Amino acid sequence: MSPQLNSLNDLIRSVRSRILARRLTKGIAITVAATVGGLLIAGLVAAWLAPRSSVMILLRILPLLLSGAALWLFVIRPLKARISDVQIARLIEEKTSLDDRLVTAVEFAEDNRAASPVIVRRLVDDVGARSSAIDLSRVIDPRRAYIYGGAAALMIASFLTLVLMRQTPVSTGMAALYSPGGGDVLANSMFINVSPGTARAPRGSDQKIKATIQGFDAETAQVFIRRIDSSNWVATPMEPAKKDDEFQHVIFNIQDSVSYYVEANGIRSPEYTLEVADLPFVKQIDLVLNFPSYTRLPSKKIENGGEVAALKGTVVTVIAKLSADAKAARILLSNGAKVEMVTSDDGHFTGQFTVKENGTYKVELTADEGPPYNGSNEYDITVLEDMPPVVSIDKPGRDMKVTSLQEVFTQARAEDDYGVAGIEIVFSVNGGEEKSVKLQDLKSDTPKTLSGAHTFFLEEYSLQPGDFISYYAKARDNNTAGGAQEATSDIYFLEVRPFDREFRQAQQQGGGGGGEQDSNALTRRQREIIAATFRVQREQAQYTPEEKEENFDAVTLSQEKLKTDTDALAERIRRRLGEEIQERSDFAKLVEYLQAASKEMVTAAGELRSRKSKDALPPEQRSLQQLLRAEAIFREIQVAQGQSQGSGS
Q1: Which residue range(s) make up the domain with 489?
Q2: For residues 648 and 643, what is the distance between their CA atoms, to the nearest angstrom?
Q3: Contact status, residue 136 vs residue 18, Cβ threshold 8 Å
Q4: What is the 3-state secondary structure of 317-386?
Q5: Are residues 21 and 147 both part of a single domain?
């Protein structure tokens, strides 16, 4: 066998190996996807539906069936399928420029009875020489095999992450399906957390039982209670608590030791005991709320209270009045903090804590003998929100058309429930870098209403017809506890127009009215889009996910529609003038501005689709600048046409 023929055979074998390797990695990736998909479906169904044992068996089999079918269809069958040397040769021919030499050489090498051996040998020698320079990566791209392998590894890693995470539907379902405990694991993942659990209870006190649902949903819950010396359980519906997954029940004036448990949606908690003893307890709690200094609010005393609802940073003084003398007392917060209470002159216990986050607190007592115990019920701590200031532009309070030499007076006002510390005007020229002018910046004695004024001397900005200034007011409150909050007004525009005589002449022209209406409509719509984007940027933290998507989609659609209309206007002008547009520099400039505006709209729409409202504002404003310049050019054209008609008459 000639060296050239050996070279051809090696080439065929190398390509065949690459084809089989790619088929294998592709089949493995599909099989992994089918297996992972089957496991996810089975796990979610097992976790959410808590199925019977017969259904559990089917769920266990489902991933095996899917993986077996995928293995046969996408791994075994493709690998068993024979690929002839001629088929491989044709594949190589498609990717290279051998002009059917390789296919012919392979065919005659397999059966050369119909051809001269000398001619076949020369053909093989020629193809062998040419094939030595073939890059196999052009024939079978190895990167696709790497992609399949990487995809399979990523799917496996993602699935293992979901399984190893605690208390997720997937991990719960997988444990229920394949762990030795089976259904017990599923049941154990759904439980009811009950407080106070097993505890000592002072005789005559009120005991609140709170149940928190974990791992499942329930609309109702019942607490079952029996006296220690009785075998009869009494079921009592529990009331919904503050959170959706919480229920509560209060045993008033408890006199006897009891056992109790909670049941909801077929899930039952362990059994607990309240051991009644003659112990002191908190019969009344008084609160004194000392609000943060920036609010300048007086202290507030709440008698016979317990629940705390106050601003972040409020110092709460808890005064616990006991039914009898106790050795010690302390406040236990839900975040783990403990505050020792001291005895006041009137024999009550007093302690303080600062409101930092939502949670709960209770008073723990220690009698003369025995360990500490819950001396009070658990009370909620709710952080009230300090709203940001409300800001507005009072003067001029609207968009304006101005000349490049005009002086524009603006006045901004801000109001806050506790105090405004500062207010400023933020502006930019033609969508450029934002600059700010501080109108008021107070360090103390911050009023609830604050205003300031600023005059724009437009001559300082060297503006031309078609330029604009956008501006808005920004204010911050005096919140020193949680950090100052900022708010902004709506955005407004100062659009530079030609001087009065030229402007009036343009408005009085009868010709080209349709074009002027188109131009004015484009600038008005772009201003509205900028204002809408600005509102979305300002308020998106308050939106629900659905509202956020809806608002972004609406602004994006408006910007894309305006882009289409701008392109249509430019095309209409080009079509109407035809080749004459090359000689009309004014119309050529008009079309150029429209095209530049359209290009900026494309960028703005892309940022809006990516939900980046802040990044969309600069291209939106640059687009407005180009539209305003196009509008100014159109007015100049109208003035010129009017003067020409006047001189002709």
Answers
A1: 390-497
A2: 9
A3: yes
A4: EEEEEECCCCCEEEEEECCCCEEECEECCCCCEEEEEECCCCEEEEEEEECCCCCCEECCCCEEEEEECC
A5: yes
Give domain status of residue 230, yes or no. Answer: yes
Distance CA 165, CA 163 (A): 6
Give residue 213's identity as a one-letter amino acid code. I
| Neighbour count for residue 391 (Cβ, 10 Å) | 24
For residue 415 the two structure tokens come to 């109001």
Q: Would you state the pLDDT for residue 45?
A: 77
pLDDT of residue 51: 46
Domain boundary among 497, 518, 533: 497
Element at 46 (helix H, strand E) = helix 3-49
**Separation between Cα atoms, residue 488 and residue 181, nearest integer Å:** 58
The set of residues, in sequence order, having a beta carbon less than 8 Å from that of 32 and lying 6+ positions away, is: 152, 155, 156
CA 471, CA 577: separation in Å to the nearest integer? Answer: 38
Q: Residue 613: its pLDDT value, please?
A: 92
CB 274 within 8 A of CB 201: yes
What are the two backbone dihedrals, phi and then psi, of residue 155, each rounded to the nearest 5 degrees? -65, -40
Rounded Cα–Cα distance for residues 92 and 138 (Å):
9
For residue 558, the model assigns a pLDDT of 93
Looking at the structure, tell me whether residues 329 and 398 fall in a common domain.
no
> Quick check: is 184 in a domain?
no
Q: Could you give the dihedral angle defined by the CA atoms of residues 635, 637, 640 and 643, in that order, rounded to the nearest 10 degrees?
A: -60
Domains of the chain: total: 5
CATH assignment at residue 604: 1.20.120
Domain harbouring 453, CATH code: 2.60.40.10
Burial (CB < 10 A; 0-12, 13-18, 19+), residue 380, is middle
* Residue 299 and residue 317 in contact, taking contact as beta carbons nearer than 8 Å: no
Dist CA 426 CA 449 (whole Å): 19
If asked whether residues 152 and 251 sit together in one domain, one would say: no
d(CA 416, CA 425): 18
Q: Which residues of the chain have pLDDT under 50?
A: 1, 51-52, 182, 184-187, 501-507, 509-516, 649
83: left (phi over 0), alpha (psi -120 to 50) or beta: beta
Same domain, 481 and 610: no
Question: Read out DSSP for 106-170?
Answer: HHHHH--TTS-HHHHHHHHHHHHHHHTT--HHHHS-HHHHHHHHHHHHHHHHHHHHHHHSTT-HH
Domain endpoint, select from 248, 277, 306 = 277
Closest CA to 394 of 321, 463, 489, 314: 489
Q: Looking at the structure, tell me whether residues 261 and 236 fall in a common domain.
A: yes
Contact assessment for residue 32 and residue 148, using Cβ atoms and an 8 Å cutoff: no
Q: What is the 3-state secondary structure (H, E, C) of 439-507?
A: EEECCCCCCCEEEEEEEEEHHHHCCCCCCEEEEEEEEEECCCCCCCCEEECCCEEEEECCCHHHHHHHH
**491: nearest Cα among 421, 459, 538, 525:** 538
Which among 459, 413, 419 is positioned nearest to 442, based on CA atoms? Answer: 419
The pLDDT assigned to 529 comes to 94
Task: For residues 397 and 545, state if they share a domain.
Answer: no
509 neighbors 636 (Cβ within 8 angstroms) = no
Copy the structure tokens of residue 488. Answer: 């902004």
At 123, list the tokens.
Answer: 């053909």
**Across-strand partners of 413?**
392, 451
- Would you say 163 and 44 are in contact if contact means Cβ atoms under 8 Å apart? no
